[in-house]
Automatic annotation (TrEMBL):
Presence of keyword Nucleotide-binding: yes
Species this chain originates from: Arthrobacter globiformis (strain ATCC 8010 / DSM 20124 / JCM 1332 / NBRC 12137 / NCIMB 8907 / NRRL B-2979 / 168)
Ranges for domain ABC transporter: 2-227
One Gene Ontology molecular-function label: ATP hydrolysis activity
Coiled coil: none
Keyword Nuclease included in the entry's annotation: no
UniProt record similarity statement: Belongs to the ABC transporter superfamily.
Cross-referenced Pfam families: ABC_tran
Keyword terms, alphabetized: ATP-binding, Nucleotide-binding, Transport
Protein name (record): Putative ABC transporter ATP-binding protein
């Protein structure tokens, strides 16, 4: 379990992480989401003792990272896959790490097999692709068979097979009762992988809930309706807070009314409907809604020109 209490990090007058409190539970995958510059990496670095908090505390299984006597066996992290610049082979790199932490050589072979690196393990890391580097970073994170795993953008640079592999791996690790905390920009991937989400924006927590609650709570519910009188149905359903869009011949998408209300109006007005399908908001929609006021770097799609947010930007 990871517990942050009032965790704060300021760089000069820039507060990157602003008094955040959260708990990452064992036995499930917790996703960490937020726009660019929201404070995800800084938070993860503080968990790993790589950055000192300006205020507040963060512990892993009740103990600050620095006070764990065998940290690699307690917490495994992939924070920056590009950080490994070595002329060693992947095998020798992992072997050196294992040796300094009294981890048996057998475990090096295990993590190489787990991460699909067997064919390239004897090659120099310097020549690795981004995806191979990610796999090596994950292998290093798993070396100590840790109870807690922290992965910053683990699927970055991986091919589709690699993405599925990471998804299955983190789910498996969580099912073994481990604490798994991962950040990703890939919303669709997070929706398939995480059980719980913590969303951060401008250094503050803006959501901390099971993923299904975030999707149902934030995205506006929409209903797909088919009718042989779409124009008449649009007229019947019109009202404050209701939006009805003609999508295609006889197909409408209604926002602001639930299916029961739509069916009732149609019946009362003798309009035939032959499809009524509730549409679930995607995590992407829910996330955009949650973070719309929190992004530090807005972009204008029409011109591509970046527009700074009104306040708090760098
Ligand atoms: N060493 C540093 N010195 C000064 N400012 C920093 C430093 N590290 C991070 N920041 C600033 O702190 C804020 C949070 O950065 P952080 O890297 O934690 O965000 P992030 O959510 O991981 O972003 P991204 O998704 O783009 O990686 C940003 O505004 C960043 O510019």
């Amino acid at each position: 379990m990871i517990e942050a209490e009032g965790l704060t990090k300021a760089y000069g007058d820039k507060t990157a992480v602003d008094g955040v409190s959260f708990t990452v539970q064992a036995g499930q995958v917790t996703g960490f989401l937020g726009p660019n510059g929201a404070g995800k990496s800084t938070t993860m670095r503080m968990i790993m003792g790589l950055d000192t908090p300006t205020a507040g505390t963060v512990t892993v299984n009740g103990v600050p990272f620095a006070r764990h006597t065998a940290p690699l066996r307690e917490i495994g992290a992939l924070l920056d896959a590009k950080a490994v610049h070595t002329s060693r082979s992947a095998y020798n790199h992992l072997l050196a790490m294992a040796a300094t932490h009294s981890i048996p050589r057998k475990r090096v072979h295990e993590v190489i097999d787990m991460t699909g690196l067997a064919d390239v393990a004897r090659k120099k890391v310097k020549g690795f692709s981004l995806g191979m580097g990610q796999r090596l970073g994950i292998a290093a994170a798993l070396l100590g068979d840790p109870q807690t795993i922290i992965l910053d953008e683990p699927v970055n640079g991986l091919d589709p097979e690699g993405v599925v592999w990471v998804r299955n791996l983190v789910k498996y690790l969580a099912s073994e009762g481990r604490t798994v905390f991962l950040s990703s920009h890939l919303m669709s991937e997070m929706a398939l992988t995480a059980d719980h989400l913590i969303v951060i924006g401008r250094g503050k927590i803006i959501a901390d809930a099971p993923i299904k609650d975030i999707i149902t709570g934030k995205g506006q519910s929409r209903t797909r309706v088919r009718s042989d009188q779409p124009d008449r149905l649009m007229h019947v359903l019109a009202g404050t807070g209701v939006s009805v869009e003609l999508q295609d011949h006889e197909l409408l998408e209604v926002t602001g009314l639930d299916p029961r209300q739509i069916a009732r109006s149609a019946l009362d007005n003798h309009v035939l409907i032959y499809e009524l399908t509730p549409l679930q908001a995607s995590l992407e929609e829910a996330y955009m809604e949650l973070t719309k006021d929190e992004v530090e770097y807005h972009s204008l799609i029409t011109t591509g020109a970046p527009v700074p947010a009104q306040s708090g930007g760098n």
